[in-house]
Write a structure and sequence with these properties.
alpha+beta, General stress protein 17M-like domain-containing protein, two-stranded antiparallel ribbon, 33% helix, 6 strands, 16% strand
């Protein structure tokens, strides 16, 4: 199953290092996107919801108006760099997540976003209760008991939905 791996980095040099490590491990640049977080004024969609390129991305991954989409959209609008890896298999997603973590991806729950962090019990299947999400951050799922800071989502983004810079 195709998946998207998300990692936030406080230091842009760490994000650059992660991309280099991904490339060294055979994950092609064509499957990796890097975006500098920034505050963006949003526009309203047809249902009156705030939207910009980041909220659109996270709404696509987590579902419109989910707590996860809101939290990730808020964090990316701070001084962070977002690295997303578009993986064609679970093994590739796990490898990419390990690399992002090893290179300094931050734990979204610990980073803070002005909102209270969702507890691990509440976030096991995402705040929406949707079971199509695999949470790698703040869990030990699929990581041999090691806590992950990056997040693996069972959702693959098409070319039009990706943040290509």
């Amino acid at each position: 199953m195709a998946q998207t791996v998300i990692g936030f980095f406080k230091d842009p040099a760490d994000a650059h290092k992660a991309v280099e490590c991904l490339n060294e491990k055979g994950i092609s640049q064509q499957f990796v996107d890097v975006s500098k977080g920034e505050y963006l004024d949003g526009t309203a969609d047809s249902e009156g919801r705030n939207t910009n390129k980041f909220t659109d991305l996270f709404n696509k991954l987590f579902g419109h108006d989910s707590d996860d989409a809101k939290r990730y959209s808020t964090i990316v609008q701070t001084n962070v760099t977002l690295v997303t890896v578009h993986a064609s298999s679970n093994d590739l997603a796990e490898a990419a997540s390990d690399i992002l973590d090893d290179c300094g991806a931050i734990d979204v729950d610990e980073h803070g976003s002005g909102n209270e962090a969702i507890s691990q019990e509440d976030s096991t299947f995402g705040a929406t209760g949707s079971d199509h999400l695999t949470l790698a951050g703040s869990s030990t799922a699929g990581s041999g008991g090691i806590k992950r800071r990056s997040r693996i989502v069972d959702q693959y983004l098409d070319e039009n939905s990706r943040l290509r810079m």
